Amino acid sequence: MKNLILIAVTLFVSISSYAATIEVTLPQAIDLALKNNPSIKIANSEINIDKAKKMQIKAMFYPKISSVSKYFNTNHLPSMYHLGGVNMPVFDNTGEMTGDHLTFHPMAPYPNKVGMAYRTDINLMFPLYTGGKRHNAIKSIDKMHNANQSNLNEKKSLLTYNVKKVFSNILFLNKVIDVYEEALSQYNKHLELAKVAYKQGVRSELDILKFQSKIEEFKSKIIDLKGKREIANIGLANLLNLPATDHLICIADKKDITTENITEDYSQKMNKILSNNWKIKMLQDKIAALNFKKKINSSKKLPTIFAFGNYNLTHNMDFAPFDETWHGSYAVGLGLKVDIFDGNKSKGETAETNATIGKLKYSKEGLSLKLRIDLEKSLAKIQSLIAEKKALEKNLIVAQKALSIVTVGFNNGVNTNIELNDAALKIIKVKTLIAKTEKDINIEKANIVYLSGGFGN
After folding, report:
1. Taking the model in full, what pTM does it have?
2. Could you tell me the pLDDT band of residue 68, with boundaries at 50, 70 and 90?
3. Which pLDDT tens digit goes with each residue over 351-384?
4. pLDDT of amino acid 257
5. How far is residue 158's CA from residue 30's CA, in Å, rounded to a whole number?
6. What are the residue ranges spanned by the domains of the chain?
């Protein structure tokens, strides 16, 4: 049994030795998230894909040179065949016909010879005029690149907001834990006072038991809060893409909690959001890309003019005795290509593009409306929370004064332990609510920054 315990302790120490404790402020947490989070890396990959697509589109309109070489067996090589005989008169030395005739058999070429042959063709094709396809294709991919860049920035902005949200929750839990630990310390002092009063015959044993029960209750609550903080730390570590064995400690900064009122009016903020929101920009760029795609579809009806060249080299494809000689020839010129009828394919593509543009425009209108509602909700909530915090701060002063009076009364046997507990719990509740309002204000302000397209520090 002792050996098993020793092994377990050894394993725990070994595993713990690999765990790193990392202290981070909010700016550091945001930087780590933007650097390590997989969603950002995926969006960055989309940008690289766009660059590769643009390279491919440009290549479609550059000169293309290709070479094809073939060594093959064929039954279509030229050969000479005898034609029907032709009788020709025979003349003597004086030029007189002798009466005799000779039959001549002329020969003609005929492609029926079987043999091996070789041919190489070098071809050049260069589009000179494409009806605007090249220009519009590059413009379209540029707009899609901008859309994917906006998508990347949107993910960065959302990630920043989520990090701020989780970080604020962790700071809130830290404050609540501090409040409960402070209260626990106070209850321990009350317990000691109760024990002294019990010895003096002023308090009963029941008072001591009630304080002990309350102390255990607070210890249990602190353990529960620390468990929730650990869960929040794991969530933050996931956003930062850190190993599960790493232990995060969030360090509060004065800039992390800002409770001042917002001076910029609603219309200014709304205009800023509509101008800078990355989702809006992404939809705008996608619509622009599709408009260029429409132009590409329209240009398919226009003629394409291209220059071409060909050089071929052959061997063993001529009449004997020339079939053993290498022969070369070339051709250069201009070509014209016109798509006369494509079965309404381009018309259907244009209709599909128009429908997609309409869908994106409606999505943009819906998103604009949602952004207005989200801004109004955040601004209204911030105003409400600021007012609530001011009221709670006044309540805290009153509660602290009340606890001081009740403590004196308890020590003098005037107030009961229940009244003392109630006074202490009031302070805990007010301090917790103040911390919560600060956290909620922070999150709402972070939400406005996110709606406005902000990310990073």
Report:
1. 0.78
2. very high
3. 999 999 999 999 999 999 999 999 999 999 999 9
4. 46
5. 11
6. 20-61+132-303+344-451
- In the block, which residue shows the tokens 């020590």? 411
Q: Do residues 290 and 353 lie in contact, with contact meaning Cβ atoms separated by under 8 Å?
A: yes
- Sort 248 into a burial class: Cβ within 10 Å, 0-12 / 13-18 / 19+: buried
Whether cis (ω within 30° of 0) applies to the bond prior to 321 is: yes
Q: Are 413 and 197 in contact (CB under 8 A)?
A: yes
C-alpha 221/C-alpha 227 separation (Å) is: 10
Cβ-proximal residues to 376 (8 Å cutoff; 6+ apart), any chain: 266
Q: What is the mean pLDDT of the chain?
A: 85
**pLDDT over 50 at 440, yes or no:** yes
The CATH number of 20-61+132-303+344-451 is 1.20.1600.10
CA 52, 58, 64: angle at the middle one, nearest 5?
115
Q: Which residues of 414-438 are buried (b: 16+ CB within 10 A; e: fewer)?
A: ebebeebbebbebbbebbbbbbbbb
pLDDT of residue 370: 95
258: phi then psi, degrees, rounded to nearest 5: -125, 120
Burial level of 235, CB count in 10 A (0-12/13-18/19+)?
middle
Amino acid letter for position 127: P
Residues 6+ positions from 337 with CB-CB distance below 8 Å: 303, 304, 305, 306
For residue range 32-50, list pLDDT tens digits in order: 999 999 999 999 998 999 8
Contact 177, 233 (CB under 8 A): no
Two structure tokens written together for 102 = 């000779």
pLDDT level of residue 164 (50, 70, 90 thresholds): very high
Contact (CB, 8 A) for 301 and 344:
no
